[in-house]
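U., I forgot to send this yesterday:
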Amino acid sequence: MKLGALEVWPPVVLAPMAGITNAPFRTLCREQGGGLFVCEMITTRALVERNAKTLKMIRFAPQEKPRSIQLYGVDPVTVGRAVRMIADEDLADHVDLNFGCPVPKVTRRGGGSALPYKRNLLRAILREAVRNAGTLPVTMKMRKGIDDDHLTYLDAGRIAVEEGVSAIALHGRTAIQHYGGTADWSAIARLKEAVPEIPVLGNGDIWSASDAMRMIAETGCDGVVVGRGCLGRPWLFADLAAACEGRDDRARPTLGEVAATMDRHATLLAEAFGNEQHAVADFRKHVGWYLKGFVVGADLRRNLATSSTLAGLREGLAELDAAQPWPDGADTPRGKTNPRDRVHLPTGWLDDPYEMAVPCADAETDTSGG
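Result:
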């Protein structure tokens, strides 16, 4: 798969996830198989203002190639400045723009999955990003639209092609669905038909390599974006690499091998954060994902999820039944699944889809990470 001058194989992308896709997690995934591994979402304002937290979040390990940054922004000028900074200072090899985030604190300010409804604003942002990127490929990730009455993905796709975007990733859900229900893969197929000039990547409900291959076969998409399916399961990227190469082998680690990965994940976090207590606390959210499907007592699960030191975490991991095999049914949904009853939008946002009004100044928080 070609993204501008970049060649990506296998055609697999790790979706940026707030609090998840930091350098340690990207390292674990990258070691399993190739692809494109995107850092946590960065706000353009925080980047151009050189916010300390944001600059720390875009540090890449020496072996990370290509380096991929996802930007969130609502102001064309600020987005352009951020992309120019990335290009001029060699901060990354690829820039992705976020138009898919469905969380209320983003959409109520006109950002994320709300923004493509404003067609002219979307065009202006994409134009500034591509114009300032130099040789870096610019891609975008989006949803179908705000809801079924306000679908935007086909218009947004054509605008993206016209403005020189290198590829589009489509999550087959609307903003109101959040992560609930079932992803509409037929929308991915329709987008691919509408924009044959550039790669289209499909996203949504990829829980296994078989799901990825089925999505490609059913939609004709050029690659896949994997988010929640790899939570607590970095070896999914080994499965995806094998499937893309036509091999049937799949990673099925024992509980002991999973425990070793958990130990390494927490250790890498401690090295990256420079604070063991902070790292172990951050790792707690991963415990349930790693242990999904395995038979582990409630007390031990609780101890692992409340550890405060690496030593304490390792003591708990040593109590796991190392020989326990990979459980049946582990390749199933994980992470958030609930839909929303409504999408929070700025007042009057739906009145005019072509209004060229940049959202309010506080539409971007001053720090990054979602």
